[in-house]
């Protein structure tokens, strides 16, 4: 197993991509801190599957827009497992589909507070732990193809993911001397609860599939293996990069 003896914190791991990542990391030997905001049943399901993989899990409820909750996640994880080696920043929201000139401050704050502020300060708390314990570590951000690719009517979302892109690049330089790697994974269109409306609209779904060279939406299980790679010693010399897992969408996308 690639991650035997490691402990990982996976934010947003009660459903979707985060849940699949937590389970896959456990299958590779890592103990998992399972974070959720509003899906306790999903967090319990993740825990059961982590334990079925032979690893330990610990559930923490937190709102990643609140700094106090962020520190609670990290401190509880360290208390439970004695250390943290891997951070996966998965928690995120997609925001409101609206014209730029119609976006309210509350809509903007909701997206940026979770996607960028939450990722920023969770990473900071994790890095502080690594510095205090004088250990290297792995940081993997679940970003989006929209850290690079335009997505009209979702400007706040794109701004948040673009911020995560530049944060990753900057931290790769700043944290490299400490033995800490930082990378992004940029999923394309994935079958998750956040896309339920799309999945139930055959016309829009078919239109999107025509933009994907591989001809299908991705699944959370398509994302998890890349996380395993970046979290393992196989990627010890990989930092400052974005890995697109999108079926070719970002090379072929155009508005219908």
From TrEMBL:
Its EC number is 1.1.1.47. One of its GO terms (molecular function) is glucose 1-dehydrogenase [NAD(P)+] activity. It comes from the Bacteria. It is an enzyme of class 1 (oxidoreductase). Keywords: Oxidoreductase. Gene3D superfamilies: NAD(P)-binding Rossmann-like Domain. Coiled coil: none annotated. It holds the Pfam family adh_short_C2. PANTHER family: OXIDOREDUCTASE, SHORT-CHAIN DEHYDROGENASE/REDUCTASE FAMILY (AFU_ORTHOLOGUE AFUA_5G02870) (PTHR43639), SHORT-CHAIN DEHYDROGENASE_REDUCTASE FAMILY PROTEIN (PTHR43639:SF1). Belongs to the short-chain dehydrogenases/reductases (SDR) family. NCBIfam families: PRK07231.1, PRK12826.1-2. This is Glucose 1-dehydrogenase. The lineage of its organism: Bacteria, Bacillati, Cyanobacteriota, Cyanophyceae, Oscillatoriophycideae.
